[in-house]
Amino acid sequence: MPEPTPLIECVVNVSEGRNAATLEAIATAISAVEDCYLLHRDVGPGAHRTVFTFAGPPEAVFAGALAVYEVAAARIDMREHRGTHPRSGAVDVCPFVPISGISLEEVAARTRVLGQLLAERFDLPVFLYAASATSPDRFGLEQVRRGEYEGLAAKLQLPEWQPDFGPSIPHPRLGATVMGARPFLIAWNINLAPEATLAQARQLAGRLRGSGTKGRPGLFPGLKAIGWHIEEYGRCQVSCNVVDPDNTALARVYLTAVSLADGMRIRVTGSELIGLIPERHLRAAARGFCFEGGYEEEMETAVTVLGLDDLGPFNWRKRVLEAVYRDAAQTDRRSQ
């Protein structure tokens, strides 16, 4: 059997969620790279952040990532940035995810090459995290990003927080960037009814996430979560990264959140997917609610039981990674 064609995904998080012209310039730059397919754009005006998901052969995807940094360097100024999401730079975090035909270690090696190039080209501090990390204390994004943009200058003065590449002072407009290779994670927010307070959202997040709160471990080791308020929705959310989706079922997290919220006298109204999701994890959500059926039936059931249409229409055909990539590649072939 022939080896599968190497295929990777980049899920770059940019600290811009309000300037449509800048977001369109980034999307255009990604799409201009041959064999690099822009699969999804998730714009968050309240968080002042946008997630671009693109995929293709490694060479094309890394070229697409470089194009993102080039546009950000020309158009984003962190000195003017205000938003609810933690961040330390214009291109805040740039993860690369192996999909097929390439190992996590091979992708990590490529991130180091790109990191050095970015540092030299933009005079930008670059931190490596996850599988690319150069020390254990840089493995988690939350440790690397702690202090955010406003605390970056002081952090870079500490011997233990020298960047992997680039200067020991922040770029005034771009801040710093974090990049690395990692397995797939699911970015997903649990919606609370408008009467829930920020303190309650934070309390619920602490109960759910693996790190827990106040020295007590939480319920799901494969889950990271924070509570926040999103002005555009007029409500609080528990913002989640499911970092071990194979062992952290969405259905179980959701049902647990519903139960805990009920005990706090608040309500979970649904959830919000950020970016794309592998089809197996969405189908597993339906089965987690004891439903088994055909492919489309399971997808529709998962949308319903997780309340993914709570904040607006949700078309799973445009949010499942494999389906979106197939459609993008077929469209590209037809246009040639």
UniProtKB/TrEMBL annotation:
One of its GO terms (molecular function) is glutamate formimidoyltransferase activity. It is found in: Cytoplasm. Residues 184-324 form the Formiminotransferase C-terminal subdomain domain. Keywords: Cytoplasm, Folate-binding, Histidine metabolism, Transferase. Pathway: Amino-acid degradation; L-histidine degradation into L-glutamate; L-glutamate from N-formimidoyl-L-glutamate (transferase route): step 1/1. SUPFAM superfamilies: Formiminotransferase domain of formiminotransferase-cyclodeaminase. This is glutamate formimidoyltransferase. It comes from Neolewinella marina.
